[in-house]
Design goal:
By secondary structure, the protein is of the alpha/beta class. It has 17 helices and 14 strands. The chain folds into two domains: 137 residues, 3-Layer(aba) Sandwich (Rossmann fold); 255 residues, no CATH class. It has a five-stranded parallel beta sheet, with helices on both faces. About 3% of the residues have low confidence.
Length: 404
């Protein structure tokens, strides 16, 4: 039986010491490995997929398909590959050799043992299509994002609003003390641009770079591809393709509007958020917490951070996101809707550090519009948490539990 594992981070308190942090998804990973022959972990690069898998399954063999010689062996002779890396085995970046999945299918069907193949991948669409064809019914699919605030809090690592927004949540920032600006610069050059080139025919890299920067400046806003097209000089069709590959590589997250007949005309375009707010801050030229505090987009970046924390809480529990937003043609808007047990929980997100009763207005309006609306939440950056009749007030570091 597989048990959940821990993720080792360097302590932020003393040089050279090590702290152990539980990745919340580890429980779900252990549970699924006891139920399925194959478990597939997808997520952005450097989110900790490999570390999680190797800590969780220390006795498994390990193969990284990014290594050219290993990739060549897997491509040319799958049976020789599995002779060298026999199950139980962890296979990193499985999307590099999707042909291997058919061999895994045959081997898994013949052995009838659980938790024998732990696969990781960074390209959502390519990998999910291949998995659906070859491993349908044989694999659990888990999605891992960078560290969550609650995971960091459990180790005693606490930051201010502005520190979190500037630094982001990539594990290397906490276990190697890498400068965030340098990390995200390298991340863009080494991973995003390389992965994008593998997925599409990118003729002008500068246009794509402009697109990502402009997209970072529009987090939390209704997506307007026509406006972006005019600003960049690239067709909306091309921008749709670029956006789809950013989502496929787990760089961005699409928050869709909630559709229900409330007797209102509903905005149908989505909002886009970056799965790591630190990357969005880097793309906006924010190079310190002080600059984050003064940035005119601090509210949007704070919203980005909270929405992705909600997403992490859902994915770490092995659940579908069930996250939406609401906006109608009358200007009624709710930043985040969480659907649970066929009921809607409205959530307002405010970057302010001082509570204002006006924060609750949009929740009260939505509760009148939607019969399924329950008591809501106001998530903000202040410490006072007054109890209201139709909404609870929470500090942004204490919200993980409401999305589980």
């Amino acid at each position: 039986m597989y048990r959940f594992a821990y993720f080792t981070l360097e302590s932020h308190q003393s040089e050279g010491t090590r702290t152990v942090i539980l990745r919340q998804i580890a429980r779900e990973l252990a549970a699924t490995a006891n139920e399925f022959p194959v478990v597939t972990i997808i997520g952005p690069r450097q989110a900790g997929k490999t570390t999680l898998a190797r800590m969780q399954f220390p006795n498994h063999a390990y193969a990284n398909l990014e290594a050219p010689d290993i990739r060549m062996l897997a491509t040319s002779d799958p049976h020789a590959f599995f002779s060298q890396f026999p199950p139980p085995v962890i296979i990193d970046e499985i999307q590099r050799v999707p042909e291997l999945l058919s061999t895994i299918q045959v081997l898994a069907d013949s052995s009838h043992q659980r938790g024998q193949y732990i696969l990781t991948g960074s390209h959502q669409l390519r990998l999910q299509e291949a998995v659906a064809q070859s491993l349908a019914g044989r694999t659990a699919l888990l999605r891992l994002l960078p560290l969550s605030i609650s995971e960091l809090k459990a180790t005693g690592i606490t930051h201010t609003r502005d520190e979190f927004i500037y630094q982001g949540f990539m594990p290397r920032l906490y276990n190697e003390k890498v400068n965030p600006t340098r990390l995200y610069r390298n991340y863009c050059q080494t991973y995003i641009e390389r992965d994008i080139r593998q997925m599409i025919n990118l003729r002008r890299l500068t246009d794509f770079e402009n697109f990502t920067r402009l997209l970072a400046g529009r987090v939390g806003q209704i997506l307007n591809l026509s406006s972006l097209s005019n600003d960049i000089g690239v067709s909306s069709t091309t921008l749709k393709e670029w956006l789809s590959v950013l989502e496929a590589s787990h760089t961005t997250f699409r928050l869709n509007p909630y559709f229900e007949n409330f007797g209102k005309r509903i905005i149908k375009s989505p909002k886009i958020y970056f799965t790591d707010v630190g990357l969005a801050s880097y793309l906006l030229g924010i190079e310190s917490p002080a600059l984050a505090a003064r940035d005119p987009l601090i509210g949007n970046l704070f919203e980005n951070m909270v929405v992705i924390e909600a997403l992490k809480a859902r994915l770490n529990a092995g659940k579908e996101p069930e996250l939406y937003f609401y906006r109608d043609n009358k200007g009624n808007e709710v930043d985040l809707l969480f659907r649970q047990n066929r009921q809607l929980i409205p959530i307002e997100i405010k970057s302010a550090m001082t509570f204002n009763p006006e924060f609750a207005k949009s929740i009260a309006k939505f509760q009148k519009i939607a019969s399924s609306a329950q008591k809501g939440h106001i998530i903000y950056a202040g410490n006072l948490t007054p109890e209201l009749s139709h909404a609870s007030v929470l500090h942004f570091t204490d919200v993980d539990h409401i999305f589980r």
